[in-house]
Give the backbone structure.
Amino acid sequence: MQHRFILGAVLGLLIMPALASASDDIDGKALYAKNCASCHGANGEPTDMGKSLKPFPARNHRAIAKYVGRDELRRIITYGVEGTAMTPKKYALDALEIEAVIDYIQTFDYTPSLANGKARFKAVCISCHGTDGRAQTGVGAKNLVYSKLDLEGIVHTMRYGRAGTLMTSKRHQLSNPDIADIANYVYSLRYLANPASGKTLYAKNCASCHATPRAIKLIGNAAEKRTVADLDDRLLDLRIRHGRHVDRAGEKVAHLTDDNIQDLIAYIRHEVK
Ligand code: HEC
Ligand code: HEC
Ligand code: HEC
């Protein structure tokens, strides 16, 4: 056992891609049934015993299978979660067996409920992110409608929070199904910037001074070496709305809404790569 574990760990470090196939012939489902199902349930839904555990109940695997990455699962399974009934499994399972268990967890499926996501978002998130997710509440929360995070990223932010900000971990406040539902709801709020409408806005408000997005020159020290493509969305937004051209372009810029700016940025990105 010990020998296989060390071999597995070495393999894991040296040839990660080979690992997934190396674990193919290990029965992850059987290992899961034997080592995990008493708390997490055979199908990933916690058992009554699992739900009654203190200080924290066993968590639902169905609802995280598609949203929590392999590395994170491996870390939790290998080392456990201190102070909970989730003890380290590295003594019971070797590295390849852990990969096989993860493979099995990743076959679980979950159908998110946007209605529940909306209700839970309202209960837990709007005090900072606002009813519409646009975060105009004055506490420095991020605008979720323009977020670039994928579902996994949204889930990760909810699970662990952002150190040193008001965005604290919600992992013990919310069940995994709630987290999955909220993440899908947040994702559904996303504003889909429209480069075609950006093009129209550009022709009307910008082209009189910058014939095309390529013709925009940046102001400042590094201006010679950089183009608008080097600015992220937030900086570009700031420069369009508050940059030095505003004293001249003021009227053309002042009436633009947040969504207009997103459309403009989408158009500029389309033209300047
Ligand atoms: C004795 C009960 C018990 C057994 C057996 C058990 N777990 Fe857990 N597990 C827990 C508890 C309790 C938690 C919640 C810990 C916490 O709140 O951070 C947990 C959390 C987890 C998590 C993190 C879930 C999340 O949403 O953060 C994973 C992944 C996990 N277990 C996998 C496994 C696997 C795989 C096995 C079998 C190899 C296993 N567990 C066996 C009780 C158990
Ligand atoms: C107490 C205030 C507060 C609450 C409540 C709160 N957040 Fe946040 N959230 C923040 C702050 C502040 C940030 C910005 C953190 C930073 O600077 O990186 C943030 C950032 C985020 C981000 C990252 C967005 C990105 O693009 O980087 C996501 C996703 C998020 N929150 C989702 C949620 C969800 C979902 C809830 C409810 C379950 C929630 N937040 C509840 C304050 C809050
Ligand atoms: C009335 C003329 C005028 C209009 C209209 C105008 N700009 Fe500008 N803009 C300027 C000038 C002048 C500069 C300074 C750089 C230069 O000399 O080209 C500038 C600079 C910029 C910069 C770089 C800012 C910085 O801080 O580095 C961006 C980005 C930009 N404009 C975008 C836009 C967009 C998008 C629009 C339309 C919404 C627009 N501009 C409309 C005149 C204008």
User: Anything to note?
Assistant: The CA atoms of residues 107 and 237 lie 41 Å apart.
